[in-house]
Amino acid sequence: MLLNRKYYQELWDKYQKIETLSAELRDNTSILSFKVILEHCRRKQPLHINFQNSDNPVHELAKQLFVELSNEIFCNAADFPQLNIGDKVRSKTAIRVGGPKPRFLDFNILSVKNDKYSLWNEKYAFTWEKTFGELVEKFIPITQKAQNETLTRFASFFEKLNGKQVHGFTPTYFDHKSVFIGQKSFYDSLDVKNTIPTTYFPNPREESNPHETKSIPALPDSMMYFVTRYKVCYDKILQKGKKVDTVVVYETEETEIEQIIQDKNRFRFNLIMLTNATDPKKYRQLPCWNWYKEETDIVNTL
Questions:
Q1: Which residues span the domain enclosing 71?
Q2: Number of structural domains, the chain?
Q3: Do the domain assignments include residue 153?
Q4: Does residue 49 contact residue 289 with C-beta atoms inside 8 Å?
Q5: Exposed, middle or buried: residue 80 (CB in 10 Å: 0-12, 13-18, 19+)?
Q6: Do residues 198 and 99 share a domain?
Q7: b/e for 190-207, b at 16 or more Cβ within 10 A?
Q8: pLDDT one-digit tens code per residue, 203-225
Q9: What is the pTM of this model?
Q10: Cα–Cα distance measured from residue 286 to residue 80, given in angstroms and rounded to the nearest whole number
Q11: Is residue 28 part of a domain?
Q12: For residue 153, which phi and psi values (nearest 5 degrees)?
């Protein structure tokens, strides 16, 4: 293989313009690969990234991509809450009632009339009337009781990522999602899922619990979906009419890639594939960026 250091330096310089969230990737090859992936995600272009060397950076790339895609959903696909009679909301600021100490209170929506929402707090037995705008700005929709730290941790996570408050309200509904397809062990390793609303859909043929689970049960919606098999994604997400921005396939479901590529155009999602194979399989309509060890050695010394 004839390698040209100048070519890789120009490649490195070209992708410096791609903005990313703060990422702690360990080498230049990982950083460059991540920026290439993000460029393809933002342009809705499919891509297969493969590393041939035994020192596998794909795991860290996948973890960082999970965060980056969730932030894209948070910033660009947030939707106003679907507030109906019977729904529960939590005040975003502490309210002084029934004593000297302010408290974060839960309310049920009793009625809706002419943009006026009547709220009922059962513990202190009082009603409050708010407009939809006030509800969106000053309350968070919830599905069950939760520690207030759980809800503030979710919002502050994305404010810290972006260095600012992105919205004038706390998004809890999202009109698009992204999907990760990978091993259950990878999902279990994602510590960030405790701050990123994620729904895990089990494979009923392999797992004893057939019901999907939320990483933040108190929130009514998720921005990320995780499955271990594409068929589950197809049956539970795509066929149900969920709008999906990106499907990431991480070192699994190689036999399903041709079908995923066909479905990509039908359901209008983008496809990113991450592998670590000595001889990666190539697919039509899925360009492969195949890193040889000799190439990564050069890039890591730039």
A1: 5-77+175-299
A2: 2
A3: no
A4: yes
A5: middle
A6: no
A7: beebebbbbbbbbeeeee
A8: 988 877 888 999 999 888 999 99
A9: 0.88
A10: 35
A11: yes
A12: -65, -40
